[in-house]
């Protein structure tokens, strides 16, 4: 297993705080989370998460959290989406994806993702 990238960690933490608050037990799970498997799809990435044994389950919660981020890339690659999947009370996996048939950049996300601006897909940058 490998560690989450700084970008993946930032994205998941941001999603959890916005959806569940800064005292969420999911943040404790995130602190011990590792990448079980990372798969590139061509137009996105799947990141299977593994939380430490003994992590507190959050009420058998199931749900998805989605956010969109701007990029420094030209349209139509100027926005990407991320969905965090929570299954049976545990962080399960993160999916990153482009819109349409746009290739997922090969460079690390830290090089092209804009972290301070979350927006809806295809919303014009300010």
Characterization of the model:
The protein has one domain. A 6-stranded antiparallel beta sheet has the order 1-2-5-4-3-6, with helices on one face. It is 17% helix and 37% strand. It contains 2 helices and 6 strands; from the N terminus they run ααββββββ. The protein is globular, with a radius of gyration of 14 Å. By secondary structure, the protein is an alpha+beta fold.
Q: What labels describe this entry?
A:
alpha+beta, six-stranded antiparallel beta sheet, 6 strands, disordered C terminus
Strand content: 35-45%
Radius of gyration: 14 Å
Total number of beta strands? 6
Q: Which structural category fits the helices and strands?
A: alpha+beta
Order of helices and strands: HHEEEEEE
Tell me roughly what share of residues is in helical segments.
10-25%
* Average pLDDT over all residues: 90
Instruction: Specify the number of helices.
Output: 2
**Count of the domains:** 1
Amino-to-carboxy terminus distance:
39 Å
What ranges have pLDDT less than 50 throughout 5 or more consecutive residues? Answer: 121-126
Largest sheet: 6 strands, antiparallel
Shape summary = globular
Spatial strand sequence of the major β-sheet: 1-2-5-4-3-6
């Amino acid at each position: 297993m490998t560690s989450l990238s700084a970008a993946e960690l930032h994205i998941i933490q941001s999603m959890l705080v916005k959806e569940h608050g800064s005292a969420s037990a999911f943040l404790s799970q995130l602190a011990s989370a590792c990448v079980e498997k990372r798969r590139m799809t061509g137009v996105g990435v799947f990141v299977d998460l593994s939380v430490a044994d003994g992590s507190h389950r959050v009420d058998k919660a199931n749900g998805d959290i989605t956010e969109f981020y701007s990029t420094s890339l030209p349209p139509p690659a100027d926005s990407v989406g991320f969905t965090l999947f929570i299954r049976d009370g545990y962080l399960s996996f993160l999916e990153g994806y482009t819109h349409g048939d746009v290739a997922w950049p090969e460079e690390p996300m830290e090089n092209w993702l804009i972290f301070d601006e979350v927006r809806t897909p295809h919303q014009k940058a300010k």
